[in-house]
Amino acid sequence: MKTIPSSxxxxxxxPQGSDAGSTLENTKEYAQLADSLGFNRFxxxxxxxxxxxxxxxxxxxxxxxxxxxxxxxxxxxxxxxxNHSPLIIAEQxxxxxxxxxxxxxxxxxxxxxxxxxxxxxIQKDFFAQSKQxxxxxxxxxxxxSQENSAGKVRAAIAEKTxxxxxxxxxxxxxxxxxxxxxxxxxxxxxxxxxxMMAAFLxxxxxxxxxxxxxxxxTIAAVNAxxxxxxxxxxxxxxxxxxxxxxIVLNNGKFLQPPVPSLxxxxxxxNDAVRSQVNQMTACSFVGNSDKLSxxxxxxxxxxxxxxxxxxxxxxxxxxxxxxxxxxxxxMDGINREKNIV
Length: 341
Fold this sequence. Notes:
13 helices
């Protein structure tokens, strides 16, 4: 039996009719509520060349959120390592950890977080760096190590900060890497849930204890939207479904307001788009507290996840704040039952 921590994944999507400044203020308020409610982590994701996403300068935003909260761990979900020099990331996150000790996480992914043209504008040898992802993770570990204090190339501010490194992914390949390196593993079930269970199984079966972690530890990122009634929650979720529709169509639209009917929204998509949207949203939990209590408990038992990370792109800020309040109450209730095994 175990207690399952609850965490937040935030992309800082800009709602239609709003702007980046207002969105970042709302993100701060969202994180402050998550902090006061007792959520474990608040992670931000790196994306580029997307006018509708305000988290492109991820390390900067992590610093803002950490500075405006008290206890919650703040980190990256994730930093797209092929976009960056490991030395620079070590210096950035070493600085963050120096400012906010024992509160900073470094989640790493190998995707670009953008389109191919932009990826090449960020890093001309992006594809070569992507293939070097395991070696670059090792380079980061060296920069964070105390032993590197004698090295010729140092990220001195990172040494001894003990920033936890996470491997993020949506495939069994990332699970194998996390297992081999003895690192914690977070799966992107909020947009690519198909391989989640198989990836978790592979990770647990192949995990090699390390100086960083002596047993497997997994985070499952899922979509979750709560409201007072199932109908209200489903209406709120139409912004989520429109977001994935717009990702599939690659039209760059801002986060759209909810529409009255999810059924009509899905019926209005062509078969190919609807199929992709349904695949991407397959790990979504939408409803009132009673419904979510049953469904999340069942998911946690089935997945064996050690931690649940909530992704909730909700159009209206008050609805978004209420949703995570209800979800935290649900998770607290599940944990009080003490029967997640």
